[in-house]
Amino acid sequence: MNAEKNKVVSFHYTVVGEDGNVVDNSRERPAPLSILLGHGNIIPGLEKALEGRAVGDKFEVELSSEEAYGPRNPDSKQRVPKKYFSGAQKLKVGDVTVLSLKGGGHRVVTVLKVGMTAIDVDLNHPLAGQKLKFDVELTGVRDAQPEEIAHGHAHGPGGNEHG
């Protein structure tokens, strides 16, 4: 079975940034990442690189910033009340943290300034503007369950655990 839209694809990966340093490595986790292919759950270039692959395939792919986290926008900054951050009192300039959004989602941000009641953040993803190199090993492909397609993401180990 090959990886295609509406299949749950499991894979291990290592990501190297432009500076040559490893920025993420799924092999250090208990389970490979599992995603519902074709639903925008991962960066576009990696999702496209997985299409048509089979279990056991190992490959490398280098992605431009446009195919990864997009170009860096120097004007993408915002002042946010501290109540939207977990552990706001411990945050300092340069920290990368998760901002809770009103609709229930999350966004990775970088702290620019910490004030008494608000925190200034850079809304660019920390890897925005970078070319990234992925080393990928496909470990599983299966048909998605109807609930997974309805929810738009994989359930279970390596995916969303609510399912």
TrEMBL record:
Transmembrane in keyword set: no
SUPFAM superfamilies referenced in this protein's UniProt entry, alphabetically: FKBP-like
Positions of transmembrane segments: none
An annotated Gene Ontology molecular function: isomerase activity
Keywords from the UniProt entry: Chaperone, Cytoplasm, Isomerase, Rotamase
Pfam families linked: FKBP_C
First-listed, main subcellular location of the protein, grouped into a coarse class: cytoplasm
Substrates-to-products reaction catalysed: [protein]-peptidylproline (omega=180) = [protein]-peptidylproline (omega=0)
InterPro entries: PPIase_dom_sf, PPIase_FKBP_dom
UniProt record similarity statement: Belongs to the FKBP-type PPIase family.
Physiological role: Also involved in hydrogenase metallocenter assembly, probably by participating in the nickel insertion step. This function in hydrogenase biosynthesis requires chaperone activity and the presence of the metal-binding domain, but not PPIase activity.
Protein name (Swiss-Prot/TrEMBL): Peptidyl-prolyl cis-trans isomerase
Record organism: Tahibacter harae
